[in-house]
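Go through the following before class.
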Amino acid sequence: YNEIKDRSKKWYELLWAQVWGDHWYPNSIPALMWIAIIVSLGIEDWIDAGVVLALHSFNSGLGFYETLKAGDAVAALKDALAPQCNCKRDGQWVKMMARELVPGDLIILKIGDVVPADGTLMEGGTCDLDQS
């Protein structure tokens, strides 16, 4: 299909990113929490280690839940806003999903339409597009 590949992470990748951190620099808080837990265990400060572990578990769980729900909301929005177009294929005008366009398809644009793909302006004079 003619569409951008989905780069969303699986649920276990999201959980891993919350518990261990996905990168060292941008998300170093989980790594620092684990260092604090290990140091606390190393000096046998069980209470501090337990408190930091509990805080880290709560924070990771909450972050995982929020990230998962945000991903679901984005997926629902993407499905609701899937662009459609009027395309001339096999000599007939049909309404189809923009992702099903292939080179050689002829599309017609009206005011307010989303331009579904790269194309060549055949006729119709001037054309003003909002590229956002």
Notes: DSSP finds three helices and three strands in the chain.
